[in-house]
C-alpha cells in the first residue's frame, strides 16, 4: 500500500509541474507585454488554470494523509519559503480572478503584474524547495534550480501558447507550427526536476508513510472517486483543447 | 502577545475570513444550480439572467474562498506541526479526502462551468454546476469530520505517544459532527438566502428594469433564508445535548460568542425571517421589509463568526479535547520573527483582497444584470 501511495504522490507532483508549469510560464510571459497581448495570453490559459492548480492542493492533501510527518518537518523547516510561495500563489490567483472585474487599464495592468510576479515568486520558491530537499537547506543550489525552473516553465508556457493559440504567441516567438508532441515534451521537461527529487527520496518517503490502517482507509475512499477525477480532467482538455475567440472570464 | 497568541490569532483570522466566503459559497451554489436547471428546462431569458447574475456573484465570492483556504491548509504545517505529529494519521485522513477528492473535483467542475458556457451541451453544463454543489457540500462534510474530531476525539487509539486511526466509522458518526454539520448547512442557506433577498430588495427599491428577475429572486432568497435559519436553530439546540460537558463554563470568549449568536440569530432574525417566509407573496410590495432586509445583510456573517468563536474558543486550552493542548501543538522552534512576518503577510494580503472582493460584489449588485462577464 505504501508503494501505491508513493506512486500516486509522485504522479501528483509530476502532474502539477507539467500542468501548472505552463500556467506559471504564461504568467511570467505577461510581464512587460501590451494589454491586448496579455488578454490573449490569459484567455488561452484561463480554462485550464482551475483544473491545473488543484493538483498541488491534492498533493498537499496526500502529504497530510500519507506523509503526516513530512508535512510537519518539511513545511516547517522551509517556513519563510513556504510563506513566500503561498503569498505568490494568492497574488497570482487574485490577479486572474480580479483583472477583468473592474474597468480601466491601470486596474488590469496592476493585476497582470501581480500574476507575473506571483508566477515568478512561486516558480523560484519551488526551486528553493527542491534544492533544500536535496541538500538539506535552501542555498545556492536551490536558487540555481529556481532559475532552471523559470526557464523550463517559460519555455513550456510559450509552447502551450504556440500550440493552442498561435495568434496570441505571434510577436513573442518566431511562429513555427507546434505539435501536441512538442507541448507534451516541454511538459515532461518541466516535471523532470521535481520527479528526480521524489525518486531520489523514495527510500525516505517509504520509511515515513502513515500506518497501513490509514493508508488502506484513504485508498478505499479515494478509489471510487479516482475515475471521476481522471474523467473530469480529461473532459477539461477535450472541451477546451481548441482555442476560441470568445471573451474569457479571466 | 507572545508567539502562541499570534499563531492562534493568525489561524483565527484566516479561518474566519475563509468561512465568511465559504458560508456564502455554500448558500449560493444550490440556488444558482436550481436557477440554471430552470433555465435549461424552460429556456426563458429571465432564468438565464438569474443564473448569470447570481452566478457572477457566486464565482467572485468563490475566488476568496480558494485563496483563504490555501493559506489555512498550510498553516497546519507552518504553525501547528505538533498536531500532525501527534494526530496526523487520524486528522489527516478527512483533510486529505477534502482536498484530494472534494476540492479537486469542485474546482475542476467549476472551471468547466465558467468556461464551458455556450461550449458544452446544455444539460452537461447544468450537470457541472450540480457537481460543484455536491462536491462543495462534500468538502463541508469532510472538514466538519476533521473539526469534530478535535472537539471529540473518537475512533482513534494512542500507540507510542501518537494517535492511530482505529475506526473511521466512529469519525463519521461523531456526536460532535451530527449536530454541527446541519448547523453549518443551515447557516449557509441562511446567508445565501439573505444575500439574494437583500440584493434583490436593493434592485427593487431602485426601480430596476428587471422586475421579474428580482421579484423571483427575492422570493427565493426569503424562503431559503427562512428554511436555513430554522435548520440552524433546530440543530443548534440539538447540539447542547452532544457537546463536551463544561465547554462554556468559565470560558468568557466562548460564552460571549454563544450568547450573542443566540441573541442575534435566534431572538432577532429567527422570528423575523419566519414571518417574512410566511408572507413571502407580499414581500415584493413591502418596501419597508425590503429596506430592513438590506440593512440586515451583515447579520448572518456576524452570527456565523460568533458561532465558530463559541465552538473553537470553547475548545481551549485543548486543540484535541483532553488529548493535546494548543500550546503543545505549536511548532517547536516557531520564533516571534517568523510568526510576526507571516502574520503581517497573510492577514495584510488576505484582508486587502477580501475588501476588494466585497467592493466588486457590491458593484455587481448595484449595476444589476448588465455586462456580466459570466456566460458572455
**Number of continuous helical runs of chain B:** 13
**How many whole angstroms does the radius of gyration of chain A measure?**
19 Å
Strand content of chain B: under 5%
Uncertain parts of chain B: none
Instruction: Describe the sheet with the most strands of chain A.
Output: none
What is the H/E order of chain B?
Answer: HHHHEEHHHHHHHEEHH
The total strand number of chain A stands at: 0
Distance between the termini of chain A: 41 Å
Shape of chain B: globular
Structural class of chain A: mainly alpha
Enumerate the spans of chain A where pLDDT stays under 50 for 5 or more consecutive residues: none
- Bin the helical content of chain A: over 70%
Radius of gyration of chain B: 21 Å
Task: Explain how this protein is built.
The complex is a heterodimer of chains A (250) and B (376). Chain A is mainly alpha-helical and 250 residues long. In chain A, 81% of the residues lie in helices and 0% in strands. Chain A is built from eleven helices and no strands. In chain A, helix 1 packs antiparallel against helix 2, helix 1 packs across helix 6 and helix 5 packs across helix 6. The longest helix of chain A is centred in the first third of the chain and has 32 residues. Chain A is globular, with a radius of gyration of 19 Å. Chain A starts with a helix and ends in a 10-residue tail after the last helix. The mean pLDDT of chain A is 89. With 376 residues, chain B is mainly alpha-helical. Chain B has one domain. In chain B, the strands form two sheets. Chain B has a two-stranded antiparallel sheet with strand order 1-2. The longest helix of chain B has 40 residues. Chain B is globular.
Topology, element by element:
The complex is a heterodimer of chains A (250) and B (376).
Chain A (H helix, E strand, L loop, with lengths): L1 H28 L5 H32 L1 H10 L1 H20 L6 H31 L4 H25 L1 H4 L10 H21 L1 H6 L4 H11 L3 H15 L10
Helix pairs in contact in A: 1-2, 1-5, 1-6, 1-8, 2-3, 4-5, 5-6, 6-8
Chain B lengths: L2 H40 L2 H34 L2 H35 L6 H30 L4 E4 L2 E4 L2 H5 L2 H4 L1 H26 L5 H29 L12 H27 L8 H9 L2 H16 L4 E3 L3 E2 H4 L6 H32 L9
Antiparallel strand pairs in B: 1-2, 3-4
Helix pairs in contact in B: 1-2, 1-4, 1-7, 1-11, 1-13, 2-3, 2-8, 2-13, 3-4, 4-7, 7-8, 7-10, 8-9, 9-11
Amino acid at each position: 500500500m505504501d508503494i501505491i501511495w508513493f506512486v500516486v504522490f509522485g504522479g501528483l507532483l509530476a502532474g502539477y509541474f507539467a500542468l501548472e508549469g505552463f500556467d506559471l510560464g504564461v504568467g511570467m510571459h505577461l510581464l512587460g507585454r501590451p494589454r491586448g497581448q496579455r488578454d490573449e495570453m490569459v484567455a488561452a490559459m484561463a480554462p485550464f488554470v482551475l483544473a491545473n492548480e488543484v493538483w498541488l492542493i491534492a498533493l498537499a492533501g496526500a502529504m497530510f494523509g500519507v506523509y503526516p510527518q513530512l508535512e510537519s518537518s518539511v513545511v516547517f523547516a522551509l517556513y519563510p519559503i513556504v510563506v513566500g510561495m503561498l503569498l505568490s500563489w494568492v497574488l497570482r490567483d487574485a490577479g486572474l480572478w480580479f483583472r477583468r472585474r473592474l474597468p480601466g487599464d491601470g486596474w488590469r495592468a496592476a493585476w497582470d503584474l501581480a500574476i507575473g510576479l506571483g508566477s515568478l515568486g512561486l516558480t523560484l520558491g519551488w526551486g528553493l524547495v527542491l534544492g533544500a530537499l536535496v541538500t538539506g537547506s535552501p542555498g545556492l543550489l536551490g536558487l540555481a534550480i529556481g532559475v532552471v525552473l523559470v526557464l523550463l516553465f517559460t519555455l513550456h508556457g510559450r509552447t502551450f501558447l504556440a500550440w493552442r493559440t498561435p495568434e496570441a504567441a505571434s510577436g513573442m516567438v518566431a511562429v513555427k507550427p507546434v505539435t501536441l508532441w512538442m507541448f507534451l515534451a516541454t511538459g515532461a521537461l518541466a516535471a523532470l526536476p521535481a520527479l528526480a527529487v521524489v525518486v531520489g527520496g523514495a527510500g525516505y518517503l517509504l520509511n515515513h508513510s502513515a500506518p497501513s490502517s490509514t493508508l488502506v482507509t484513504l485508498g478505499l475512499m479515494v478509489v471510487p472517486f479516482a475515475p471521476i477525477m481522471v474523467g473530469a480532467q480529461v473532459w477539461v482538455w477535450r472541451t477546451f483543447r481548441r482555442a476560441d475567440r470568445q471573451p474569457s472570464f479571466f | 502577545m507572545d508567539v502562541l497568541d499570534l499563531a492562534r490569532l493568525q489561524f483565527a483570522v484566516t479561518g474566519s475570513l475563509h468561512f465568511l466566503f465559504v458560508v456564502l459559497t455554500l448558500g449560493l451554489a444550490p440556488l444558482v444550480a436550481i436557477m440554471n436547471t430552470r433555465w435549461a428546462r424552460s429556456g426563458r431569458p429571465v432564468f438565464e439572467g438569474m443564473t448569470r447574475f447570481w452566478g457572477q456573484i457566486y464565482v467572485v465570492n468563490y475566488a476568496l474562498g480558494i485563496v483563504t483556504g490555501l493559506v489555512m491548509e498550510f498553516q497546519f504545517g507552518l504553525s501547528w506541526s505538533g498536531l500532525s505529529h501527534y494526530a496526523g494519521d487520524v486528522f489527516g485522513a478527512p483533510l486529505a479526502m477534502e482536498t484530494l477528492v472534494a476540492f479537486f473535483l469542485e474546482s475542476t467542475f467549476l472551471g468547466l462551468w465558467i468556461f464551458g458556457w455556450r461550449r458544452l451541451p446544455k444539460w452537461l453544463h447544468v450537470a457541472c454546476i450540480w457537481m460543484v454543489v455536491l462536491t462543495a457540500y462534500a468538502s463541508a462534510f469532510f472538514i466538519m469530520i476533521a473539526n469534530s474530531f478535535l472537539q471529540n476525539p473518537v475512533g482513534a487509539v494512542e500507540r507510542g505517544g501518537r494517535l492511530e486511526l482505529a475506526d473511521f466509522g466512529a469519525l463519521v458518526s461523531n456526536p460532535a459532527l451530527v449536530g454541527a454539520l446541519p448547523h453549518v448547512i443551515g447557516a449557509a442557506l441562511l446567508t445565501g438566502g439573505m444575500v439574494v433577498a437583500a440584493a434583490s430588495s436593493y434592485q427593487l427599491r431602485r426601480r430596476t428594469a428587471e422586475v421579474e428577475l428580482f421579484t423571483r429572486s427575492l422570493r427565493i432568497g426569503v424562503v431559503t433564508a427562512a428554511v436555513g435559519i430554522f435548520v440552524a436553530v433546530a440543530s443548534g439546540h440539538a447540539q447542547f445535548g452532544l457537546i463536551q460537558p463544561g465547554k462554556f463554563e468559565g470560558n468568557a470568549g466562548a460564552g460571549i460568542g454563544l450568547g450573542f449568536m443566540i441573541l442575534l440569530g435566534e431572538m432577532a432574525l429567527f422570528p423575523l425571517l419566519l414571518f417574512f417566509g410566511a408572507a413571502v407573496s407580499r414581500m415584493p410590495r413591502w418596501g419597508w421589509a425590503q429596506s430592513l432586509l438590506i440593512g440586515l445583510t451583515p447579520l448572518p456573517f456576524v452570527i456565523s463568526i460568533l458561532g465558530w468563536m463559541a465552538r473553537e474558543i470553547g475548545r481551549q486550552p485543548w486543540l484535541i479535547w483532553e488529548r493535546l493542548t494548543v500550546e503543545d501543538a505549536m511548532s517547536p522552534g516557531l520564533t516571534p520573527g517568523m510568526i510576526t512576518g507571516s502574520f503581517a503577510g497573510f492577514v495584510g494580503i488576505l484582508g486587502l483582497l477580501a475588501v476588494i472582493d466585497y467592493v466588486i460584489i457590491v458593484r455587481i449588485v448595484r449595476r444589476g444584470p448588465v455586462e456580466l462577464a459570466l456566460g458572455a
